[in-house]
Write a structure and sequence with these properties.
conserved putative lor/sdh protein from methanococcus maripaludis s2 fold; Efflux RND transporter periplasmic adaptor subunit; CzcB_C; four-stranded antiparallel β-sheet; 4 domains; MFP_Cation_Efflux; alpha+beta; single chain; 399 residues; OB fold (Dihydrolipoamide Acetyltransferase, E2P); Elongation Factor Tu (Ef-tu), domain 3; transport; signal; 22 strands
């Protein structure tokens, strides 16, 4: 009998132990509440937070409230710019004929006048063209005198009309040949004065003079003395830096507000160096720039004391003539939570909502809000740092 009781106890003991453990686990689970959300300290900084002021805090802080209203303002925007040579103020000097550089008159950094000689190109091809012109000129002179004599003989009925017609045709052919030879030399840049020199000279010097089409400074030289060059090969570049072209790069959204003749303030990238110019937008490119995907605005301006120079980067501040409806709040209403701009919107008596916003521009007295605010809302415009401190204190208290 005792043996049966012992066996029964041994069988029931493990079962009783399991039941006891399960009961203890359920008790522990019941004591730990279920975590349904992150604590406030782990939430995103940009998440809205409610700050509730006590009566004493409202009396001590005396928060100033400013109503929010949208209004039309002159919109200004900033854009990067790059300086280029102005149209008609830059010229690539090239040789129109095959030859050899026999003399270089001007080098990099030298100032040149319009029409001044830059290079001498010695060329057998040029010598042949001069010879062709001189022969055509001589033939025309001969046919001109011949035609005069024939006309006189016809008037005296010594020569026939048919003879005069034949001589006239030969004169026209000689004239056409002379004009063709003249045009070839003019295409090479030979002046009328130089052609007159060829006519009176005893010998032909096969040297072509290359003239500068504009006045300015030699910016780059691409050839050396004695170098053989081919037709249309570049010799140098001349820049007139008295006027420059500045290309500004604006986003497509902002470009819709820009018009020709809008005012532009031009400054150095490092504004501490000074040097500010004022100009107007000359034109706006209709398409997007391929690399930056921006709209290009063109600004023509005169350089002052050699600034700006082609190739330089500048800053542009464009004051648009288009009015833009924006929401403006006092600068005092803005603060930052990390890198996020935030404001405190009044939700009730002593109750403020810390709200993240997107700022489009910060002026001297106002902040222009791109999104995050609506008309007829009210924002705190004083003691916002105290509200910010209280919002952080509430988060710590909740933790």
């Amino acid at each position: 009998m005792n043996m049966n009781r012992i066996l029964l106890f041994l069988l029931l003991a493990p079962f009783a132990f399991i039941v006891a453990c399960s009961s203890q686990k359920n008790k522990i689970d019941a004591e730990i509440p279920e975590q349904v959300e992150l604590p406030p300290s782990l939430k995103s900084e940009t998440e809205m937070t409610i700050v509730k002021l006590t009566s004493q805090q409202q009396q001590d802080l005396h928060i100033k409230i400013t109503p929010v209203n949208s209004r039309l303002v002159d919109y200004s925007l900033s854009a990067p710019g790059v300086v280029f040579p102005a149209p008609k103020h830059s010229s690539i000097i090239s040789t129109p004929i095959n030859g050899q550089v026999s003399e270089i008159k001007k080098y990099e950094g030298d100032w040149v006048r319009e029409g001044e000689v830059l290079y001498h190109i010695q060329s057998l091809e040029f010598g042949n063209l001069v010879s062709e012109y001189l022969q055509a000129y001589a033939e025309k002179q001969f046919q001109t005198n011949r035609l005069k004599r024939i006309r006189q003989l016809v008037e005296e009925t010594i020569s026939s009309v048919s003879e005069m017609e034949r001589v006239t045709a030969e004169f026209e052919r000689a004239s056409a040949s002379e004009r063709a030879a003249y045009s070839k030399l003019k295409a090479l840049g030979v002046t009328d004065r130089e052609m007159q020199t060829f006519i009176g000279a005893e010998n032909i010097t096969p040297v072509l003079q290359i003239h500068s089409p504009i006045g300015g400074m030699v910016d780059q030289t691409f050839v050396e003395l004695g170098q053989s060059v081919s037709a249309l090969e570049n010799l140098s570049r001349v820049l007139d830096t008295q006027e420059v072209l500045i290309r500004g790069y604006v986003s497509p959204d902002e470009a819709r507000l820009i018009n020709n003749n809008d005012s532009v303030r031009i400054s150095r990238r490092d504004e501490a160096l000074g040097s500010t110019l004022h100009a107007k937008i000359a034109s706006i490119n209709p398409g997007l720039e391929e690399n930056s995907r921006s709209v290009v605005v063109n600004i023509l301006t005169e350089a002052v004391d050699g600034w700006p120079r082609p190739g330089e980067n500048v800053r542009l501040e464009i004051i648009t003539s288009s009015k833009k409806e924006v929401i403006a709040i006092p600068v005092e209403a803005l603060t930052y939570d990390g890198n996020q701009a935030v404001i405190f919107v009044k939700k009730g008596q002593g109750v403020f909502e810390k709200r993240p916003i997107t700022v489009s521009e910060i002026g001297a007295k106002h902040v222009f809000v791109q999104n995050g605010l609506s008309d007829n809302e009210q924002v705190a415009s004083s003691n916002v740092f105290s509200l910010k401190a209280l919002s952080r204190y509430d988060i710590i208290s909740e933790e």
